[in-house]
Each structure stands twice: as structure tokens, then as C-alpha cells.
Design a protein that fits this description.
By secondary structure, the chain is α+β, with helices and mostly antiparallel strands. The chain has one domain. The chain is built from three helices and five strands; from the N terminus they run ββββααβα. Strands 1-2-3-4-5 form a five-stranded mixed beta sheet. A hairpin with a 5-residue loop joins β3 and β4. The longest helix has 13 residues. It is globular. The C terminus is likely disordered.
Amino acid sequence: MGKTFRKRSKKMVVNGAQFLCVINEFPTNEFVNFKVYSSKTSYFEVLFTWEGCWHFIPHMPSNCERLIRYAIESGWEFSAEKKILKIEQGDFLIDKLGLTNCLHSSLNY
């Protein structure tokens, strides 16, 4: 099965807080962009290589949750305005967080 290329968004609740995940998978972009907004001005952004993204499904709820939890544990102050955390090379997170391409995986993070 091949990947579909598009921009997707998904609302998530993690630890009682609401987030909006926006995943940009357009082939004209150099990287796959995963961005999570907690407000209009605060967000967490991680860039994955195309090769890395073939190993997991960025928009899968458990992967979104793992990435959000990682950002918070890494110091992202999501509840404050104008707080931004960026990771330019995010492929290391695929193995570190156990991001998966299996739709039936459990959340072990």
C-alpha cells in the first residue's frame, strides 16, 4: 500500500488538554512536517525525512499522542502563549518513541 500525499489535521486530547495536529505530507516539500497547536500562537513542530516517514504513520492517534507527550516532557509550555518548540531532524524519535505503522499497536510510551 502506498502513502497518500496531503495535509491532514486531527484533534487530540492529552492529559485533559486539547491539541490540533497538522501533518503536511506534500511530495513537493523537502520534509514531512508534523505540527501540534495548543493555541493560535503556541505549537510544537518536528520535521521527518520522507525515508523516515515510510516507517510510521504520522497521523495515527497513538503516534500523535507519543509526540505530544515527548514535546511536553522536553519542556514545551503548551499552556502559555507564543511558546514554540521545534525539532529540525525528527527521525531519531521514530525509534526512541516507538512510532509505528501498525494500526493495531498499543500505546506503550
